[in-house]
Design brief:
The protein is built from 1 helix and 11 strands. By secondary structure, it is mainly beta. The strands form 2 sheets. Strands 2, 4, 5, 6, 9, 10 and 11 form a 7-stranded mixed sheet that branches. Strands 1-3-8-7 form a 4-stranded antiparallel sheet, with no helix packed on it. The chain is globular.
């Protein structure tokens, strides 16, 4: 089970840190690549980032590079998404998802993610 937290209301240009925590043993979590996605009202879900199980490699979608960072602490079964310089158009429900695979890989497709959290709302507004 995945649980997101850290969402809320923030002004444009503000910051939030989202967390994605998982139940289960730490050793299993090492084999879960974690992706972050977001879905704005009336829009399709889009991928934001992925971090490999080992945490050695991560990627971000182009529109958030330089503003968002992703990291993980496997001792806490938690992945973090730091959101900086937020824009109103980034208002969305943010979801994390897990894909079981070798610790140096991220999925290539959304359908490879097997487990999803319930999402956390991020609202960027003045």
């Amino acid at each position: 089970q995945l649980v997101e937290s850290g969402g809320g209301l923030v002004q444009p240009g503000g910051s939030l840190r989202l967390s994605c925590s998982a139940d289960g043993s730490t050793s299993n979590y090492y084999y879960n690549a974690i992706g972050w996605f977001r879905q704005a009202p009336g829009k399709a879900r889009e991928g934001v980032s992925c971090i490999t199980g080992s945490g050695s490699t991560s990627n971000l979608t182009e529109s958030v590079k330089g503003r968002f960072t992703v990291s993980r602490d496997n001792s806490k079964n938690t992945v973090y998404l730091q959101l900086n310089s937020l824009k109103p158009e980034e208002t969305a429900v943010y979801y994390c998802a897990a894909a079981f695979m070798p610790p140096e890989y991220c999925p290539s497709h959304e359908y490879e993610y097997e487990y999803w959290g319930q999402g956390t709302q991020v609202t960027v507004s003045s």
